[in-house]
Specification:
- Its EC number is 3.1.-.-.
- It is found in: Cytoplasm.
- The chain folds into 3 domains: about 35-230 and about 395-475, Metallo-beta-lactamase, Chain A (4-Layer Sandwich), CATH 3.60.15.10; about 235-385, Rossmann fold; about 495-585, Ubiquitin-like (UB roll).
- Strands 1, 2, 3, 4, 5, 7, 8, 9, 22 and 23 form a 10-stranded mixed beta sheet that branches. It has a 6-stranded mixed beta sheet with strand order 10-11-12-13-14-21, covered by helices on one side. Strands 17-16-18-15-19-20 form a 6-stranded parallel beta sheet, sandwiched between helices.
- The radius of gyration is 29 Å and the shape is globular.
- Helices cover about 30% and strands about 25% of the residues.
- The N and C termini lie far apart (about 65 Å).
- Helix 4 crosses helix 8, helix 6 packs across helix 7 (about 265-275) and helix 14 (about 530-545) packs antiparallel against helix 15.
- It is of the alpha/beta class.
């Protein structure tokens, strides 16, 4: 039996059962029920995509990418697995709604929309502009059309009625979504925070959230990214005040690094520059692109001449320049790292420059950021970062903001989304604090199918769809799997060695010495004793496996070489390089 959650009475949670994978046959038990499935975003930061399905009619919220982990060498990014939709042709997608213009919420569109048959796309004005700009990088995905919606608009996407509400994030035009279905109402917050004095945006529409919540919210899907941070997320106006306090007391040049999508932060630097007689030079492809789109649509305002091309910085006094760039995460090819390494065409770091890290450190990037700071400090730069003072505000709600959202909407059930298990569990604990029964909170992973019936009962079913990684590597989509990744990991850790043996097919004996090629394993000139052992052992293995008495089996010889040489090399070096045996018959 499935585990049931109901707002009427508490039940003792049953032991978890490993859900079965979805089969292509529709389940009649799901008829007249709203099916809620998170394809991504529940076990990671990114790859956000949620499916809402009623009688084979499907509404999708977001379609984002996930950036690769450190153990995924060569992978560009990961996209949601849509096999549940492509393998079940009876399901009709009535719409895809994008909550805001960040890649982890829309970046998979060029890859997935064609495979889904170009369903209707909906986005707010700035989000639409950013998506359409990115589409120019993917001409092979065809032309897409996006219907623009306003924040007070209602969409009829039968059998769903969709409403929106404005929230704050670190990009304007961020919205939450309310989905009315015959089985009940679901609210999806998107990425959000509450900011009563934002920069380049309006405060979150609390009154509309209350109004929508008062109509009854059966299930709330809510952002969990910052749940472990106590208190309230600081306002962008506080960030601007602190940045201004730093910059007005700096006599020399300012180099500020932040996220390329953080248009509100760019607006802050523009405001400060105009107040204190400085000029802003932007660098970083994504930053320049987002700024131009936001400026054209009126989301960023700058006086003529305030923002100058990066190539013209030498035409102005250094104490009048603020360089705003990407690279705050220590990325090797990003602008700030190129400046630090003296590889930038127009900006060379000087002693006395002030470098501002106006961003948080993404988990996993701590070492690269520290290395970058060391390089900058060694060259005489003065460094400011968010641990010294509040010069960065997260785009995600902290603990008290999450409680406020729960109190404003008063949902019967909660599904914490967007974040690792730890973050979502803390969010669940916060929900219990404000009065939501534990049995009405579903802390689940990607792919679990939750149903909501007309009696407002939420059930975690035994069904689970396929949400395995689909990795993008160059032009390849999904052609790199775990086997390829494992090979790349071996190559990156222990390297590879190629052993080329020339075998006489008449005698089964090796002619001459085997050639050896090493990449990332050992330096051949300094490993002559090891190479001699490998050649000697190769000859022995080949000649034991191939004789003139029977037909030579090359595959069998290579397999023996791989196994036996692997043991020898590990015994000699305690390393496990990839071994590529080559047998040439003559």
């Amino acid at each position: 039996m499935p585990t049931e959650y109901s707002s009427k009475k508490k039940r003792t949670p049953k032991k978890s059962i490993q859900p079965k994978k979805h089969t292509s046959n529709p389940q009649t038990s799901s008829e007249n029920k709203l099916r809620i499935i998170n394809v991504g975003g529940l076990e990671e930061i990114g790859r956000n995509m949620s499916i809402f399905e009623y009688n084979n009619q499907v509404l999708i919220i977001d379609m984002g990418i996930q950036f690769p982990e450190s153990d995924m060498p060569g992978i560009d990014y990961i996209i949601p697995n849509i096999s549940y939709l492509t393998e079940n042709k009876e399901k009709q997608i009535v719409g895809v709604i994008i909550t805001h213009g960040h890649m982890d919420h829309f970046g998979a569109i060029p890859h997935l929309i064609p495979k889904l048959g170009y369903p209707p796309l909906f986005a707010a004005r700035l989000t639409k502009g950013i998506i359409m700009k990115r589409q120019t990088d993917f001409p092979e995905s065809g032309d897409i059309k996006i219907t623009e919606f306003s924040k007070d608009e209602t969409l009829s996407l039968s059998p769903f009625t969709v409403e929106f509400f404005h929230v704050n994030h670190n990009i304007p035009d961020s919205v939450g979504v309310v989905i009315h279905s015959p089985a009940g109402t679901v609210m999806h917050t998107g990425d959000f925070k509450f900011d009563h004095a934002p920069i380049g945006d309006h405060p979150a529409d609390l009154q509309r959230i209350v109004t929508l919540g008062s109509k009854g919210v059966d299930v709330l899907l809510s952002d969990s990214t910052n749940s472990e941070s106590p208190g309230y997320t600081i306002s962008e106006s506080v960030v601007q005040r602190n940045l201004e306090e730093i910059i007005k007391n700096i006599d020399g040049r300012v180099i500020a690094a932040t996220f390329g999508s953080l248009t509100s932060r760019i607006q802050q630097f523009v405001n400060i520059a105009e107040k204190h007689g400085r000029y802003v030079a932007l660098d970083g492809y994504s930053m320049r692109t987002n700024f131009e789109i936001a400026k054209e649509l009126g989301y960023v305002v700058a006086k003529k001449g305030t923002v100058i091309p990066i190539k013209d910085v030498h035409e102005y006094p250094e104490n009048k320049i603020i360089v705003v760039c990407t690279g705050a995460q220590g990325e090797g090819e990003a602008v700030l790292m190129r400046i630090a390494n003296k590889e930038h065409r127009f900006v060379q770091l000087h002693a006395g420059d002030s470098v501002i890290f106006s961003s948080s450190v993404v988990p996993g990037n701590e070492r690269s950021v520290q290395i970058l700071k060391d390089v900058l400090m060694t060259q005489g730069a003065k460094i400011y970062h968010s641990q010294l003072m509040d010069i960065h505000a997260s785009g995600h709600a902290q603990a008290e903001d999450l409680k406020l959202m729960l109190n404003l909407t008063k949902p019967a059930h909660l599904i914490p989304i967007h974040g690792h298990r730890y973050m979502r569990q803390i969010h669940a604990d916060l929900a219990e604090e404000v009065g939501i029964p534990k049995e009405n909170i579903a802390v689940i992973d990607n792919g679990y199918v939750i149903t909501l019936d007309k009696k407002k009962k939420m059930t975690i079913t035994k069904e689970r769809i396929n949400t395995s990684y689909v990795m993008v590597d160059g032009l390849g989509i999904g052609d790199v799997g775990q086997v390829v990744l494992r090979d790349r990991q071996i190559l990156s850790e222990d390297g590879m060695i190629v052993i080329i043996a020339i075998v006489d097919t008449n005698t089964g004996r090796v002619r001459g010495n085997s050639d050896i090629i090493s990449r990332g394993f050992v330096y051949l000139r300094e490993s002559k004793p090891l190479l001699a052992d490998i050649r000697k052992y190769t000859k022995k293995i080949v000649e034991q496996s191939a004789t003139g008495e029977h037909t030579m089996n090359t595959d069998y010889i290579k397999e023996n070489m791989r196994d036996q040489l692997g043991k020898l090399i590990f015994q000699k070096t305690k390393r496990r390089p990839m071994i590529l045996p080559v047998v040439i018959e003559v």
